[in-house]
Write a structure and sequence with these properties.
Blueprint lengths: L1 H10 L4 H12 L3 H7 L12 H10 L3 H9 L4 H6 L2 H7 L4 H24 L1
Helix pairs in contact: 1-2, 4-5, 7-8
GO molecular function: chromatin binding; histone binding
GO cellular component, one term: nucleus
Pfam family, one: SAM_1
């Protein structure tokens, strides 16, 4: 979502509010740069390597929590097998981020993967 602000900023170069938004993006991990890495990830999460999983979570704003997936060697296949309990307790993450990671990312990725592979 944040990436869209960057495009607006190039359309309206004189707009100061857009400029401040751009600065915020750079502070929380240069969002624009990470988005370009998405194209390097295979479209099917089952084909993701550990670093693809880590980069995915960095891209969606879980910079701190992404390293837990690396430490636990979670690749795409492992990610698709994870239960809610695995995410909440197995990664030793704080409960708030862990819930969001499971509900908004792991579960939808699993659902999408199942749909794509059941046809």
């Amino acid at each position: 979502r944040r990436g869209n602000w960057r495009f607006k900023q190039t359309d309206e170069p004189c707009s100061l509010p857009m400029l401040s938004v751009d600065m915020e993006n750079k502070e929380n991990g240069s969002v624009g740069v990470k988005n370009s890495m998405e194209s390097g990830r295979p479209p099917d999460p089952a084909d993701w390597a550990v670093m693809d999983v880590v980069n995915y979570f960095r891209t969606v704003g879980f910079e701190e929590q992404a390293s837990a997936f690396q430490e636990q060697e979670i690749d795409g296949k492992s990610l698709l097998l994870m239960t809610r309990n695995d995410v909440l307790t197995g990664l030793q993450l704080k409960l708030g981020p862990a819930l969001k990671i499971y509900e908004y990312h792991v579960k939808p990725l699993q659902t999408k993967h199942l749909k794509n592979n059941s046809s």
